[in-house]
Design brief:
Blueprint: H1 7-12, H2 33-51, E1 55-57, H3 59-75, H4 80-85, H5 90-106, H6 114-127, H7 130-133, E2 135-137
Antiparallel strand pairs: 1-2
Length: 138
């Protein structure tokens, strides 16, 4: 699952438990509500742009958001190594895919139905959600 080659890799890279580098162990970053919301938004946006031919990604916004999320993780005490560790974590990717699929189904998207992906994409763009903010109509 990649959006322009970086979106999910960049967002997923943040979803990682920190080591014991500090005095106390930090909780898994993927359990942080902000991080979880941003991962889900990225995954939904990726699915929409892959399945709707009239919607694409706004890559500069994606890069900006990944940088913001990395800085947020660092401000919580996670390290750059923590931030990068998840790029190859299949369990976290599977968890995110399940969350994405549930969100899509709850919003009336049917696999293989281009119109349902496009409908949701335009709804997200019109309400200027995070998912909509990283997408654009072609």
């Amino acid at each position: 699952m990649r959006l322009g080659g970086v979106l999910l890799g960049g967002f997923l890279a943040v979803s990682v438990s920190a080591g014991t580098s500090g005095a106390e162990e930090l909780p898994p970053l993927e359990d942080n509500p902000r991080v979880q919301h941003e991962f889900l938004s990225a995954a939904v946006g990726d699915a929409i742009r892959k399945n709707c031919p009239t919607i694409s990604s706004r890559m500069l916004r994606v890069f900006f958001r990944v940088s913001e999320l990395r800085n947020y993780a660092l401000s919580l005490g996670y390290t750059r190594e923590d931030f990068n560790r998840l790029r190859n974590n299949p369990e976290a990717k599977a968890r995110l895919e399940n969350m994405r699929d549930s969100y899509l189904a709850e919003h009336g998207v049917t696999e293989g139905d281009t119109d349902s992906y496009c409908r949701l994409g335009y709804e997200e763009i019109n309400k200027n959600s995070l998912t909509g903010w990283i997408l654009r109509a072609k």
